[in-house]
Amino acid sequence: MKLLVTGGAGFIGSNFILYWMKKYPQDQIVNLDSLTYAGNLENLKEIEKNPNYSFIHGDICDLDVVERSMVGVDWVVHFAAESHVDRSIKEPSPFVMTNVIGTHFLLDASLKNRVKKFHHISTDEVYGSLNLSDQSKFNERTNYNPRSPYSASKAGSDHLVRAYNKTYGLPITITNCSNNFGPYQFPEKFIPLAITNILENKKVPVYGDGLYVRDWLYVLDHCHAIDLVLNKGKVGETYLVGGMTNDISNLEVIKKILKIMGKDEGFIEHVKDRLGHDRRYAVDWSKIKNELGWRPLHNFDEWLEKTVEWYKANEKWWKDVKTGAYQEYYKEQYGS
Ligand code: NAD
Ligand code: TDX
Questions:
Q1: 215 pocket-lining for ligand 1 (C-beta < 6 Å)
Q2: Number of the ligand 2 atom closest to the C-alpha atom of 278
Q3: For labeling, which of 33, 88, 106, 328 is most exposed (least CB within 10 Å)?
Q4: Is the CB of 177 under 6 A from ligand 1?
Q5: Which residue's alpha carbon is nearest to atom 1 within ligand 1?
Q6: Which domain, by its residues, includes 221?
Q7: Is 189 left (phi over 0), alpha (psi -120 to 50) or beta?
Q8: How many domains is the chain partitioned into structurally?
Q9: 134 is a catalytic site residue
Q10: What pLDDT, in 10s, does the model give residues 271-316?
Q11: Is residue 202 domain-resident?
């Protein structure tokens, strides 16, 4: 089996490649990644010399590269995206280019090369925002209601993927997953930003009142869900993936991190809110549980602690990415 993984140098993509090569060592993986600020080949050091792994440095918006990457490919697993909501608010264009146009090019090439499966990695954010007072959760029948340029571009990509199935019969599956955390997450996302700031003795910026709710899932549980959908999922279907049963606010998350790291709440700094900030995400993951037997195997508190340990043990990894361009981004986003 030969897999083309797009965006395999990013957070979830690199965890997926490491997971897959351990579990299915006979498979070949081609990793197509343009190495934006979020792509880091350091994540894949332990498998870079494996003869079943190869890397193509290229953009999914470059049709020639995409065509070249598809040769002999059985399955496409599509992670490549611009993924940070705050960046999408400042500059939406790269989001539309990569997430919509890039996905479109991949779909065309997949059709032309008769790939046997195209799995698209998407997000729960396409469903919009729930109320805090509400007990409801997103499910596969929830209407799309994206509210940021990031989620709108992901919604556009989801619609294209489904359209290629309905119109041309491309064998697709989609997973819409909640917020992931774990090793190799770029430290501009909330959890790794918090951990690395505290390690640097800096305050943690919390947007607005901090009562926003996210559904958190350890990254390997997401990889396992994708594995099950690829191997057992029904063609044409969408599966929602989430990790929580009870709501947890950003303030509660940061308080847990501070407790794990032995610091007091003086590290919390409330800052200006994100524009259009989605209040609450909650995911009903009963379809993938009932149909494919998936459930999260990593407990949030335990794996949050292990994630803190990972960032402590891998200081060089995150210090190397928190350099020049990161500092500029940080200053612009949060002020000095
Ligand atoms: P990431 O930002 O860490 O990594 C994205 C990767 O894609 C990087 O390696 C980057 O270099 C690459 N890339 C970006 N533009 C590209 C292009 N034009 N051509 C080729 N490669 C390109 O993102 P992530 O957090 O690992 O997310 C991966 C996927 O999962 C995305 O599609 C995202 O929407 C989705 N997702 C993420 C989360 C989350 O919590 N992080 C949750 C649900 C879904
Ligand atoms: O400095 C911060 N302060 C803060 O309060 C940052 C960066 C975030 N936050 C808040 C905003 C959100 O309510 O924390 C929450 C999580 O923020 P992010 O880590 O930026 O994630 P989110 O916006 O929820 O989107 C993430 O989950 C779904 C990923 O980035 C997406 O790629 C994924 O699709």
A1: no
A2: 13
A3: 328
A4: yes
A5: 10
A6: 2-186+216-245+281-299
A7: beta
A8: 1
A9: no
A10: 999 999 999 999 999 999 999 999 999 999 999 999 999 999 999 9
A11: no
